[in-house]
Automatic annotation (TrEMBL):
Superkingdom classification of source: Eukaryota
Lineage of source species: Eukaryota, Viridiplantae, Streptophyta, Embryophyta, Tracheophyta
A biological-process GO annotation: xyloglucan biosynthetic process
EC number: 2.4.2.39
Protein name: xyloglucan 6-xylosyltransferase
Length: 629
């Protein structure tokens, strides 16, 4: 028998609020450090070397910057670069862009060297070289920071202006003697006249001879801009090219910003996420209900099955027809990688269902606005039971749960006398009334009248607002160790079973012999050990059927655990299950942390003679549809 998890496996919004405060304090501390370090170093350099006697004694024009202005600009540049670096760090940019941190450190060092080098020592020519290198590091920082956080890139621009337009241009002039300065000014005046003549010549030629292949000035500008835009974004990737003559012509005539309009990175997704109108508001005087009361569902379903023999509820001996149901929000995830991990999770579920002859339903619609959050599954489950009478068992699984034993076939025969199968422990639910005595992230529910009745008993605590808040207070008071937060579906089920065992307990099976739900915190660090010592399928040392990442919330803004640990372990869990699929075809991931794969066997001219290690290619447990004849 599996031991209960050592820590809670259900989290809520109120717990999140309490955990946001330490995160905010940590963010404030990191911002303080990011700004204080470069500003302090800059101020120390100014007070130590910034008196600038050589600079004051230098004969210079009136438009040269004053010493105090140079110091203020240095402090401003340090502040902006510190803020920019903090934004990049907060987005994880120093991990995604390994060159960004060395470039930032280099530009800080170069900014500190300039004062003692030029103002104290008077090494103007060496200072010019450092200015050029410093400008280059700022440009490199801009190129690295901007893809990570556009605001961080915007903060670098004033630093470029400060260091190049004001400092470096003026310092370049003063590095020469007076007669050299006069010669340079004369060359610049002549250059301006030459440039003006060149522009006028081009205009006259274009007006008389036509634009030729270059098109209009707007087209020239678009061509140049698009060239630099594409080269800046160039990286190894697959590119799909299309001929878009009509689109190009329309864009050129309309003068639109093609590069910006075609960029997914800069597009504001909220422009297309339109919520039309408000949700229907229920009558507050009526008790909540999932739908009209049904009392004869077993009779209705038996009659339907008799009239539709081509849709049997059992598709093999002791093999019920099963529908696995999961889903996610209709909106995109609130973080950049959330949808990627949802895709991994559904791919994982599809693999398991394909191997075991299970149908799958993925939901992205909120069927009842009153039952948002934890409770959204209840209206969906009831609807699917009623509209799919051919389904014998509905298997609900949260979107953040993954199969990690592809060879495990649920022991359906064990549940022939039960209607509701959850991962849990009898003593924790019935004796201790512990709020984590069971888990509702992965459970089996038979399609029958009993199930409709328990859904009706389960739902009244779910409507958001006052009802859910008041129910949460009752659950916290009645259940062991439950924190104070609104009612959740798991605590509500523990409460129902503990207080109404005589009514419901006989048909409920609390499974603890295998991981119908496996809390990730006690499993993920042991995957390598499991690969060496355990085995898939049945037995005392089996792999966990399901690894459930409760509390990670990969689709939200904040989770209850460190993001890096959650995402790394979700990758490992996915690869653990994916390796069992890939081995069929002679591949495996290079490691549980790697997305890359390697061969595990050589190709053969007799592929049908190759046997996969786990027997998943044509498994004996895969359902074969029973003939209706």
């Amino acid at each position: 028998m599996l031991s209960p998890p050592p820590s809670p496996t259900t989290t809520t919004a109120r717990i999140n609020q309490k955990k946001k405060m330490p995160m905010m304090r940590q963010a404030f501390k990191s911002l303080t450090v990011a700004l204080a370090v470069p500003l302090s170093l800059t101020m120390i350099i100014i007070f130590t070397f910034g008196s600038g006697p050589k600079y004051r004694a230098l004969q210079k024009p009136f438009w040269f910057p004053r010493l105090w202005l140079i110091h203020v600009a240095s402090l401003g540049s340090s502040f902006l670069m510190g803020m920019s670096a903090w934004l990049v760090w907060a987005e994880g940019g120093f991990h995604r862009q390994p060159d960004a941190l060395p470039l930032y450190i280099a530009q800080v060092s170069l900014s500190l060297i300039w004062d003692p080098l030029v103002l104290k020592i008077g090494a103007s020519h060496v200072g010019l070289l450092f200015c050029v290198v410093h400008f280059g590091t700022l440009v490199a920082c801009y190129q690295k920071f901007r893809p990570v956080n556009p605001i961080a890139g915007a903060f670098v621009k004033p630093c470029l202006l400060i260091k190049s337009s004001e400092f470096k241009k003026n310092m370049l002039d003063r590095f020469f003697e007076a007669h050299q300065l006069w010669k340079i000014k004369r060359v610049l005046r002549n250059g301006k006249l030459t440039l003006l003549c060149l522009v006028l010549t081009v205009v006259v030629i274009r007006s008389n001879l036509g634009a030729g292949k270059f098109g209009t000035p707007q087209e020239d500008f678009n061509e140049i801009r698009d060239h630099f835009y594409s080269s800046r974004r160039a990286e190894p990737r697959r590119v799909l090219e299309e001929a878009q003559t009509a689109t190009t012509t329309t864009t050129a005539s309309g003068g639109g910003d093609t590069a910006s309009e075609n960029s997914y990175a800069t597009f504001d997704i909220t422009k297309i996420l339109v919520d039309e109108g408000e949700d229907e508001k229920p009558d507050p005087n009526k008790p909540y209900s999932l739908g009209p009361k049904i009392s004869d569902w077993d009779e209705q379903r038996a009659d339907w099955l008799g009239k539709n023999p081509s849709f049997p509820n059992f598709i093999g001996p002791n093999k019920p027809r099963v529908l696995l149901v999961t889903g996610s929000s209709p909106k995109p995830c609130e973080n950049p990688v959330g949808d990627h991990y949802l895709l991994k999770a559904i791919k994982n579920k599809i693999d398991y269902c394909r191997l075991h002859g299970i149908e799958i339903f993925y939901n992205m619609a909120l069927l009842d606005a009153e039952m948002a959050g934890f409770w959204a599954k209840l209206p969906l489950i009831r609807k699917l039971l009623l509209f799919h009478p051919e389904i014998e068992f509905l298997w609900w699984m949260d979107s953040d749960a993954m199969f990690t034993d592809m060879a495990f076939e649920v022991p359906w025969e064990r549940y022939k006398d039960h209607n509701f199968v959850l991962h849990g422990w009898n003593e924790m639910v019935y004796d201790q009334k512990n709020w984590i005595g069971l888990n509702t992230g992965s459970f089996l529910l038979r399609n029958c009248q009993w199930s409709l009745d328990i859904l009706d008993a389960w739902a009244p605590m779910g409507p958001k607002g006052k009802v859910r808040d008041e129910a949460g207070k009752i659950l916290t008071r009645e259940l062991k160790d439950r924190p104070v937060f609104e009612a959740d579906d798991q605590s509500a089920m523990v409460y129902i079973l503990a207080t109404q065992r005589d009514k419901w307990g006989e048909k409920v099976y609390l499974e603890s012999a295998y991981y119908l739900h496996g809390y990730w915190g006690i499993l993920v660090d042991r995957y390598e050990e499991m690969i060496e010592n355990y085995h898939p399928g049945l037995g005392d040392h089996r792999w966990p059927l399901v690894t459930h990442f409760v509390g990670c919330k990969p689709c939200g803004k904040f989770g209850d655990y460190p993001v890096e640990r959650c995402l790394k372990q979700m990758d490992r869990a996915f690869n653990f299950g994916d390796n069992q699929i890939l081995q069929i075809y002679g591949f495996t991931h290079k490691s549980l942390a790697s997305r890359r794969v390697k061969r595990t066997r050589n190709e053969t001219s007799n592929p049908l003679e190759v046997k996969d290690e786990l027997g998943l290619l044509h498994p004996a447990f895969k359902a074969v549809k029973v003939s209706s004849s």
